[in-house]
Specification:
alpha/beta, ABC transporter transmembrane region fold, Rossmann fold, six-stranded mixed beta sheet, four-stranded antiparallel beta sheet
């Protein structure tokens, strides 16, 4: 998959050729679906362009022979035809370029749609947290942007070269059959050499894709607004630029080594071709002196042998480019064949409102068969309409549990039931429509303020009243209203928003303000059955935190809520508090019950209480911001 078979062993060459042919056929079919008219015209003009050099050479021969025979009355016609052939040659080049551009533009649109379709059809996160898949995806993206156009262009150029080559070969065969056969035989090793060169380039591209991705990553850190402050503070510019340079040097070294090998193997073919041309030219000169060839014959022979060399070179070169593009295009072509990381039901059930409970039964999970278990038999019931708080030190599986509830992954063992139905019986998108979440690692989109909130319910993105209502509930409406262009202000300095007054500079929010925007985005789904709040107020001060929790309390009325927080004081009103430890439910109960048990929750509570007492002793306010317990 993704071209892993265009690797090393020569015994795989037939398989690689077959893979390349399938990819080439897929690319041509894609180009045809994108713009059949442009492709047809492009091929027609290119074939005509391939015929014209042979016609011009024959006309020159006829003209030269006519000049040596006084009284030849057909010279005017030959001259006019030669002018027409020259004009045709001049016009077909820009016309072919224009038609190829038309085909390329239509192809780019179609390729982008199919690339996104191939990515969007993967419903879970497993592939996107797999470095090897990301390397292959990057290769598919590169191939999608260039390979189809290269393949179509190479195919048409090959047809053009073949037509020109055939015309000149016929001419040489007529003059000297032996030389024609030798020239034809010489084309075969040259073609194989070029195909091998294309394979090496494709292999090099695949093998250095990880280096290319890293080079892009290190380079992006030096300009990303989220990292540039820390990079400047700690003086990391040279550190990351050196790393980017090291990765790029690895790629450049691999490219150079590949091209040196290709040049070394191509040189004998080039020298042999020149030798054959030289031998033919010597023969033609001798034959002309002996009266066996006319001046016109010599001229057409010279043009034909040079044209054959050019045609063989063009055919081999385009075949090499096409072969390389075909092998890399395999990554794009097979993107739609990547198995989905979540099994999808053939006839998915409709997702009903969560009227009973959401239940985890003996849920085990690990990310790969070789990795350690994150969850080890979790049994947990989230009763509809209640608030369950989840507590645990780092690494106990809280974030993993959230991914499972959103069905970004499926349990390795066990099951999750929605009103008694395994959530694997639902379509993932339909299930997620009934879930709202504020993730700890919430996203900051380089979009306008209104769009950042409205994405929570994208079908209502243009409902300014709902966006404003969500922002008000999250306590961020006053701040967004004061922005230069209000909710139309771009929350980024990367792009500029275009309003009534033209391009406007974006504005930046603080971390706490961004967190309120993320909460407002979740508020757009106030009708959700399940609400997951993963540290929804970690970046806020005590007053803002209380305001957010008051809003959340109003928002989550009637919803089934799972809240994760390191600030245990915010969980006191939860109907039940669950403590995760070593991948299992270690404790469960109300706030008071867990304190009475004097277990892990009580220990963490006392650690935070000690933070309060330390603040009071130092003359701090009566209600200081809670101190997170170590490791939370």
């Amino acid at each position: 998959m993704f071209g892993e078979d265009f690797g090393a062993a020569d015994t795989k060459e037939p398989r690689r050729y077959g893979e390349a042919l399938r990819s080439a056929a897929a690319a041509v079919a894609l180009a045809w679906r994108s713009s059949p008219g442009s492709v047809t015209a492009y091929v027609t003009v290119s074939v005509a362009s391939g015929l014209l050099p042979t016609a011009a050479a024959l006309l020159v021969s006829r003209l030269l022979d006519g000049l040596t025979r006084p009284g030849d009355e057909g010279l005017t016609t030959v001259t006019l035809l030669l002018i027409a052939a020259t004009l045709g040659t001049s016009l077909t080049v820009p016309l072919a370029d224009f038609l190829r551009g038309q085909s390329t533009r239509a192809l780019r649109l179609r390729v982008q749609d199919e690339l996104f379709d191939g990515v969007n059809r993967l419903p879970g996160l497993r592939h996107f947290e797999d470095p090897s898949f990301l390397d292959r995806l990057r290769l598919a993206q590169q191939a999608a942007s260039s390979a189809p156009d290269l393949l179509v262009g190479s195919l048409v150029s090959s047809v053009q070269a073949a037509v020109m080559l055939a015309g000149f070969l016929v001419t040489v065969f007529v003059i000297n059959p032996v030389l024609g056969v030798v020239t034809l035989l010489l084309a075969l090793p040259a073609l194989r050499t070029q195909l091998t060169a294309g394979r090496r380039r494709a292999e090099m591209l695949r093998d250095t894709m990880n280096n290319s991705r890293r080079e892009m990553f290190y380079g992006s850190l030096l300009t990303d607004t989220d990292t540039v402050k820390e990079i400047r503070l700690y003086g990391l510019q040279r550190f990351f630029s050196d790393r980017a340079g090291a990765e790029l040097r690895t790629v450049v070294t691999a490219e150079r080594g590949t091209e040196v090998r290709n040049l070394r193997q191509r040189t004998p073919d080039l020298l042999l071709g020149v030798a054959v041309f030289g031998a033919g030219l010597l023969w033609a000169v001798r034959a002309a002196r002996q009266g066996e060839l006319s001046i016109g014959d010599v001229s057409v022979f010279i043009a034909a042998t040079a044209g054959i060399q050019r045609g063989v070179g063009q055919l081999a070169g385009t075949a090499s480019v096409a072969y390389q593009a075909s092998l890399t295009f395999t990554a794009f072509r097979t993107l739609g064949e990547v198995p989905v990381d979540l099994p999808l039901p053939a006839a998915p059930e409709a997702v009903p409102p969560l009227a009973d409970c959401l239940e985890l039964q003996d849920v085990w999970f690990r990310y790969t068969p070789e990795s350690p278990w994150i969850l080890r038999g979790v049994d947990l019931t989230l009763t509809a309409g209640t608030v369950t708080a989840l507590v645990g030190v780092n690494g106990t599986g809280k974030s993993t549990l959230v991914k499972l509830l959103c069905r970004m992954y499926d349990p390795t063992r066990g099951r999750i039931l929605w009103n008694g139905v395994d959530i694997r019986e639902f379509a993932p998108d339909a299930l997620r429509e009934r879930v709202a979440a504020v993730f700890q690692d919430y996203s900051r989109y380089d979009l306008t303020a209104g769009e950042n909130i409205g994405l929570g319910r994208v079908d209502r993105l243009d409902r300014e009243d709902l966006v404003t209502e969500a922002a008000t509930a999250a306590g961020i409406h006053p701040r967004l209203s004061r922005l230069g262009d209000g909710y139309r202000t771009m929350l980024s300095r990367v792009f500029a928003a275009t309003g009534a007054a033209g391009a406007a500079e974006g504005e930046l929010l603080s971390g706490g303000e961004w967190q309120r925007v993320a909460v407002a985005r979740a508020f757009m789904r106030r009708d959700a059955d399940m609400m997951i709040l993963d540290e929804p107020s970690s970046g806020l001060d005590a007053a803002a935190e209380q305001e957010i929790h008051d809003s959340l309390r109003e928002l989550r009325a009637g919803a089934t809520v799972l809240v994760i927080s390191h600030r245990l004081s915010t969980l006191r009103d939860a109907d039940r508090i669950v403590v995760l430890g070593e991948g299992r439910v270690a404790e469960s109960g109300t706030h008071a019950e867990l304190l009475d048990q004097e277990g892990e929750f009580a220990r963490l509570w006392k650690l935070q209480a000690a933070g309060y007492e330390a603040g009071d002793d130092a003359g701090a306010p009566a209600e200081p911001t809670p101190v997170a317990a170590p490791g939370l």
